[in-house]
Amino acid sequence: MLRRIITLTAIFLVALPSTVFAQGRSFIRDTEIEETLRMYATPIFRAAGLDPNGVSIYIVSDNSLNAFVAGGQKLFINTGLLLKAETPEQVIGVVAHETGHISGGHLSRVHDQLRNASAISILSTIAGVAAGVAAGRSDVGTAAILGGQNVATRNFLAYSRTQESSADQAGVKYLTEAGISSRGMLEFMQTLEGQELLSTASQDPYLRSHPLTVERVDFLENYVSNSSLKDAKVSPDLYERHARMRAKLFAFTNHIQNTMRTYPESDTSIAARYARSIAYYRDSQLEPALEIIEGLIAEEPSNPYFEELKGQILLEFGRARDAIPPLQKSAELSNGAPLIRLLLAHAMIETGDEAYLAPAKENLIGVLSRERGNASAWRFRAIVENRLGNEGEASLSQAEYSLLTGDRQAASYHAVQADRKLEKGTATWVRAQDILQATNPDGVPGKDAAN
Predict the structure, then answer these.
(1) Can you give the pTM of this predicted structure?
(2) How far apart are CA 184 and CA 91, in angstroms?
């Protein structure tokens, strides 16, 4: 299933270049989940004086409970944490704490550790994450990312007790300024307390890299008990989003039998039905999957993600033409979400109908206008341009794809082809020169490609 999710829709595992790290985890991209996490994090980032658009959030496909910040303003959250967090406030509390590390400048010590070769390797991994997530190499089922069990990584990302306390204090401040209770942060810490007696190997990575002390828990307990917001809850909409996010993640990362046990037929909530639809889809049971999702669409006709899932199901079952209408509606309802428009373009390409090439190109241009580093969009763009007979644009798109996925030799080769086919002096021709310059260390365009 994970291998088959080619376009970035409901749940998509992103593979990083194999040179980044030998062992590791996968990334997940999903418009609905990313939007939910943004809704959680934006008030916290603003309270901390950070530009919400300047902080990147990555979802790591790992069942262990962990979250960390690294490589600047990059926040990583494990699916295990999202699945174990029973309330939105618990996730928001973790985000607030990690934001405390960012605003406290705790990452500055990284520079001191760069003298260590293993630290350099780890930082290189972190630096490669953004490019890898953007690449969208969906032909590979697993990805290279930070190994949560790697000792060097744990040491590199570990914070001191002083920094942890500082992040707690900053976190509760941001939560209060955002009008959110700090109870979620306390509940998360209390969950970690139960792991302190476990062996180090059995503990979740979060506890190993974020040392927990009695003083930290006492501080949070006192803060919450004396806060006017101690019993405050976020909006019911966020609770519903949280339930759906957990259901979606669970169904996409578990066998159908586990999903059906966790979300039995007796549970008629939207989240449970959502999970069962995904479970049937992953088990190649088309009819029950469609029946459930169509029922959900009837209840919430303005929900873009139900339409998205319907389109993805139809596309996966070889019904590309039938997938187009729900995906078009999903794109409209989501204000042109890039990942959804990418899936729509993919469906259009899969029909093999030349009439769909122009609208597919339009959608891909829309994706790239918002996510220029999305390699899957460049790969599909190369296919469309080639079918349209635009050889120069096709070569340039293939060069962009190769550059993003780390194949510098292929990028250079295709940039040379683009240089030959594109009109001199145009913006696309100039971009081909940029790629040639980037892929030829001696500054002689085309030399690598010619050899």
Answers:
(1) 0.83
(2) 7
